[in-house]
């Protein structure tokens, strides 16, 4: 199976309006920025996007929000995006806020073929409304359903032409679990190498999960909030 494609535009072929996408990253770290940019230049709309956060106004998923290409966001943290806030409060955007650990586990469970699981996170809050609850050992839990997507789009530090991926630092938070939960998984990488150049013990996502891979160029790697000591 030939997995290497030329660029982001070729990688996103087959994504259609109305589909569900998982997009890796944490803040602006490890987001698939080239694929997001390609999507922003397309006519694809009505997307459901599963992502820990929603980028910022002028970068990442902020591009898709600005273009009104997203109908629903399933996220954990969205506090850095004014356009997101405006669309949510006006009712233009459907939002499903999920505790961060629960969101990660929903993606991991989806990739593992587990349809649902119990968690104590969110019990007694709006998160639990309409969900089944159960008591275990004197503690209350809510039933959360797992997540899958038509396409999972991830960003890795290194990858080989067989699709094996290595993530770096914070980019390892959501990318690996999302890579397993898409019907089709696209990986953009900073460095694309030949098979055998990645040590087996260093691989975070086996190539069996990855369907398309390409090497991106000129990554911006923006910092969401720069904090330095005096």
Keywords:
alpha/beta; 3-stranded antiparallel sheet; NagB/RpiA_transferase-like; Glutaconate Coenzyme A-transferase; 11 strands; 230 residues; globular
Q: What does this protein structure show overall?
A:
One of its GO terms (molecular function) is CoA-transferase activity. This is 3-oxoacid CoA-transferase subunit A. InterPro entries: 3-oxoacid_CoA-transf_A, CoA_trans_fam_I, NagB/RpiA_transferase-like. It comes from Acidiluteibacter ferrifornacis. Keywords: Transferase. This protein is an alpha/beta fold. It has a domain of 150 residues: Glutaconate Coenzyme A-transferase, CATH 3.40.1080.10. 19% of the residues lie in helices and 27% in strands. It is built from six helices and eleven strands. Strands 1, 2, 3, 4, 8, 9, 10 and 11 form an eight-stranded mixed sheet that branches. Strand 2, helix 3 and strand 3 form a beta-alpha-beta unit. The longest helix has 13 residues. It is globular, with a radius of gyration of 18 Å. The mean pLDDT is 94.
Percent in helix: 10-25%
Radius of gyration: 18 Å
Order of helices and strands: HEHEHEHEHEEEEEHEE
Write the CATH architecture name of the domain at 16-97 and 148-215: 3-Layer(aba) Sandwich
From the N-terminal CA to the C-terminal CA, the straight-line distance is 53 Å
CATH class of the domain at 16-97 and 148-215: Alpha Beta
- Strand segment tally: 11
Q: Please state the overall shape, judged from the principal axes of the Cα atoms.
A: globular
Q: Work out the strand percent.
A: 25-35%
């Amino acid at each position: 199976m030939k997995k290497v494609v030329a660029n982001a535009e070729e990688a996103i072929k087959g994504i259609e309006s109305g589909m569900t996408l998982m997009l890796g990253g944490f803040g602006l770290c490890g987001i698939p920025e080239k694929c997001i940019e390609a999507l922003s230049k397309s006519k694809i709309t009505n997307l459901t996007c599963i992502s820990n956060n929603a980028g910022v106004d002028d970068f990442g998923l902020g591009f898709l929000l600005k273009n009104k290409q997203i109908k629903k966001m399933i996220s954990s943290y969205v506090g850095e995006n004014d356009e997101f806030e405006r669309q949510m409060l006006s009712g233009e955007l459907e939002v499903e806020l999920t505790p961060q650990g629960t969101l990660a586990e929903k993606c991991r469970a989806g990739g593992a073929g587990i349809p649902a699981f119990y968690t104590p996170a969110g019990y007694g809050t709006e998160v639990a409304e309409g969900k089944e609850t159960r008591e275990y050992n004197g503690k209350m839990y809510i039933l959360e359903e797992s997540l899958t997507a038509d396409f999972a789009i991830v960003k890795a530090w290194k990858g080989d032409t067989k699709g094996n991926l290595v993530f770096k630092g914070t980019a390892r938070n959501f990318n690996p679990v999302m890579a397993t939960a898409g019907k089709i998984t696209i990986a953009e990488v900073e460095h694309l190498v030949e098979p055998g150049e990645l040590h087996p013990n260093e691989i975070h996502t086996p190539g069996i999960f990855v369907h398309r891979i390409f090497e991106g160029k000129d990554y911006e790697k923006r910092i969401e909030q720069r904090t330095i000591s005096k």
